[in-house]
Write a structure and sequence with these properties.
single chain; 197 residues; alpha/beta; Rossmann fold; five-stranded parallel β-sheet; 8 helices; 53% helix; globular; binds uridine-5'-diphosphate; binds magnesium ion; pyrimidine biosynthesis
């Protein structure tokens, strides 16, 4: 993390909305650092001897949300380790606990620029995750049972967080039901303020 306050863009949307894919594009074009909360949790889960491994795996399979202290510390560590100034935080904050914990721990340390909201119908999102599972994503939650629960969590817990940011005029929405390139054309419009690399 550089001396000045780092810039943060949150990337939200349902499971399978394309957050990871679009973040990779933003990294390539605009030089952001991509921090996926889900990937950081999966990495922590897989560390030999991690005291949180079992807890994280249970939440991931059940589609519920890991306590914010764990996720937020993983995010903060990843930011502190990095020299760069522009961060995409993908898949976080997902519920009120996440938002409160983030505000407590990180509120004064970063500038949240906006929330990129990838909006796509539920059936499209679910089918993308199921295809990803069948194609060998190796994720323990890309199966029909976990997906049902992930969708419930998204609708009940994450949508209200997106509404919260929308009331603050921080949400920039794109139609994520389209193909990857068309979606990225829309995404780019929102990053115009950041110099293309
Ligand atoms: N997760 C969590 N807190 C986070 C991000 C992810 O608890 O801040 C857990 C949650 O159980 C979620 C799972 O990790 O269902 C997978 O999240 P990821 O963002 O990888 O899934 P995606 O939405 O990208 O399919
Ligand atoms: Mg993801």
């Amino acid at each position: 993390m550089s001396a000045s306050k780092p810039n943060v863009v949150f990337v939200l949307g349902g499971p399978g909305a394309g957050k990871g894919t679009q973040c990779a594009n933003i990294v390539k074009t605009f030089g952001f650092v991509h921090l996926s909360a889900g990937d950081l949790l999966r990495e922590e889960r897989s560390k030999p001897g991690s005291e949180f491994g079992e807890l994280i795996e249970k939440h991931i399979r059940d589609g519920t949300i890991v306590p914010v202290e764990i996720t937020c510390s993983l995010l903060e560590n990843a930011m502190t380790k990095n020299e760069k100034n522009n961060f995409l935080i993908d898949g976080f904050p997902r519920n009120q606990d996440n938002l409160d914990g983030w505000t407590r721990q990180m509120g004064d340390k970063v500038n949240v620029h906006f929330v990129l909201f990838l909006e796509a119908p539920e059936d499209i999102c679910v089918n993308r995750c199921l295809s990803r599972g069948q194609a060998g994503s190796g994720r323990s939650d890309d199966n029909p049972e976990s997906l049902k629960k992930r969708v419930v969590t998204y609708n009940n817990d994450t949508m209200p967080i997106i509404s919260h940011f929308d009331k603050l005029s921080l949400v920039r929405k794109v139609d994520a039901a389209k193909g990857t390139e068309e979606v990225f054309d829309q995404v780019k419009e929102h990053f115009k303020g950041f110099v293309e690399s």
